[in-house]
Amino acid sequence: MKKHLNLILYILSILTPVSIEAQRHEIISQRIKTLQVVADGDWLQLPVTELGRGEITIDFDDLTHEYNRYTYTLQHCEADWQPSVALFEADFVDGFASGNTIDNFQQSEFTNTLYTHYRITIPNERCKPRISGNYILTVLDDNDEPVLKACFMLTEPKDRMMHLGLAATSNTDATVNRAHQQVEMTLAYGSYRVTDPAKQIKTVLLQNKRWSDARINIKPQFSTVDGMRWSHCKDHIFLAGNEYRKFEILSTKVASMGIERVAWDGQNYNAFPFIATEQPNYLSERDADGAFCIRNSDNWNNNTASDYLIVNFRFDSPQPLKEEIYLNADWTYDRLMPEYRLSYDAEARQYKTAILLKMGYYNYRFIQLDSRNNARPLETDGSFWQTENTYQAFVYYRSSAARTDQLVAYTTIKTP
């Protein structure tokens, strides 16, 4: 009876408006770690691929060494990530949108931290999306309780895409070759019939895949019967920030790039990245703009032979700052969760936090919350026009007779 009640409550929850964070991955259960959502094997990019041709893989670990029966539910969403309530299950999926078991799993091998690794591949023989757009995949445990949420996007086939152009400049309407970057965007409708652009077209622009600073449905400066253009658009100005910090943990015995030392405390392995300091000047260093990749020194069975370590982050600060400081990266899922907040140690004059992470290559940066609770780059790290950033843009379209939004354009660029 309890299982049926929980399932009913869950179904009701996905049919009600979702939060502003609905487009971000989320780990709900404390026993779940290292959620990765990757399109076509490219871990550097957002999980976006072409309908009918691409592949989405969803990987995660359960921190037990036993099989747990997990199922998943697939939900199609509109451009604003609200559930597509006008659609039936058969409208957006061939097969089954719910009740699919995860059969691809494997226990960890020769690791101090025991875990079981699970993988979902979309599409598969039981669940194949039929239409483009936004999707949320929710994994549920044996009690029908959600343990994680994974988000991905499917575009229209290439021959049905609108043409979307992006360019970025440091000569912005805010500063000239100083602290900002401004994105110019052009859209050509192609074969699509657009009679009411304000209602039929929806746009999203991101910097470094961060949904928390998304620029949504910004009005274009120019609109014609053939398309739109955003030029000298104030709402497309971003702080350039500084390059991401990075480290790599490949072994429990030897320190790798960015790691001062690795130590054993009697129960767990601990890794200590070099103490972070202020970066008031531009740091020219190649990074992955927040991405992470799981691997070990042998590059062997990376998903099941890579151990977990407690990573001890430290940031020098002579005195506490007025605003809270958080870690931010793809592996924090752009969420301001308590475990990603750094606490100030007055005796050491440092901000500190410790997080359990799997072996691999990691990018990260520090962000702070302003008086309006908005996240922005750490002021002491500066913001410089030379910083390499990636920008991602989406365009959604709904015809006058359609019941949902199609993802008809997607592109990404890297500056400079």
Task: Describe the protein in words.
By secondary structure, the chain is mainly β. The protein has three domains: 26-155, Sandwich (Immunoglobulin-like); 163-241 and 388-414, Immunoglobulin-like, CATH 2.60.40; 245-381, Sandwich (Immunoglobulin-like), CATH 2.60.40. It has helices spanning 2-14, 89-92, 197-200, 302-305; strands spanning 26-27, 32-39, 48-50, 56-62, 71-77, 93-95, 100-101, 104-107, 116-122, 127-129, 133-140, 146-155, 163-169, 180-188, 201-207, 210-216, 222-223, 227-230, 237-239, 245-249, 259-264, 269-273, 292-294, 308-316, 325-328, 341-345, 350-358, 360-369, 375-377, 390-397, 406-414. The strands form six sheets. Strands 20, 21, 22, 23, 24, 25, 26, 27, 28 and 29 form a ten-stranded mixed β-sheet that branches. A hairpin with a 4-residue loop joins strand 21 and strand 22. The longest helix is centred in the first third of the chain and has 13 residues, at 2-14. The N and C termini lie far apart (58 Å). Residues 32-156 form the Type 9 secretion system plug protein N-terminal domain. It comes from Prevotella micans F0438. It holds the Pfam family T9SS_plug_1st. This is Type 9 secretion system plug protein N-terminal domain-containing protein.
Averaged pLDDT, please?
A: 93
Based on the structure given, which CATH architecture of the largest domain is correct?
Sandwich
Computed CA radius of gyration, to the nearest angstrom: 22 Å
Count of helix runs: 4
Q: What structural category characterises the helix and strand content?
A: mainly beta
Beta content comes to 35-45%
Instruction: Specify the CATH class of the largest domain.
Output: Mainly Beta
Q: For the terminal residues, how far apart are their CA atoms?
A: 58 Å
Poorly predicted ranges: 1-19
The percent range for helix content is under 10%
CATH topology (fold) name of the largest domain: Immunoglobulin-like
Oligomer: single chain
* Main beta-sheet annotation: 10 strands, mixed
Tell me the number of strands.
31
Count up the domains.
3
| General form | globular
InterPro entries: T9SS_Plug_N
Domain Type 9 secretion system plug protein N-terminal: 32-156
Pfam families: T9SS_plug_1st
Protein name: Type 9 secretion system plug protein N-terminal domain-containing protein
